[in-house]
Amino acid sequence: MPEFPKDPTTYGLLTYLWVGGLSAWGGLISFLRKRRDGYARPWNFVELVGELATSAFAGIITFWLCEAAHIDSLVTAAIVAISRHMGSRALFHVEKWAEARFPQSD
């Protein structure tokens, strides 16, 4: 069976819901951990939304990278879960990888 080219628009809503939901869950866990450690104020809605959005974004970017690398779906789910917990730290690692892979020319 021929494989159709994939791009962000060819994935269904259900795929994005599980990736975004799994990722946002990590944002909630991260917020609760920061709250427990005293880094976040209780009922800080803006910080909570920021954690959820950052984690969801990191999870979706990780999902796309895994899909581009043809990584098995169960392994992809695990990697998405790890990156969602990392949140902005995961984005920092992707940025460092991209800088090494695509060096700037003068």
Shape: globular
Helix fraction, binned, reads over 70%
Beta-strand residue percentage: under 5%
Mean pLDDT: 80
Number of helices: 4
The end-to-end distance, rounded to whole angstroms, is 45 Å
Number of domains: 1
Total strand segments: 0
The major beta sheet can be summarized as: none
* Gyration radius, rounded: 16 Å
The parts where pLDDT drops under 50 for at least 5 residues are none
Element string (H = helix, E = strand): HHHH
Structural class: mainly alpha
Describe this structure in words.
The chain contains 4 helices and no strands. Helix 1 (13-36) crosses helix 2 and helix 3 packs across helix 4 (88-101). By secondary structure, the chain is an all-alpha fold. It has one domain (14-101).
SSE blueprint and pairings:
Layout: H1 13-36, H2 45-68, H3 73-86, H4 88-101
Helix pairs in contact: 1-2, 1-3, 2-3, 3-4
Concise summary:
With 106 residues, the chain is an all-alpha fold.
List keywords for this structure.
0% strand, 106 residues, mainly alpha, 4 helices
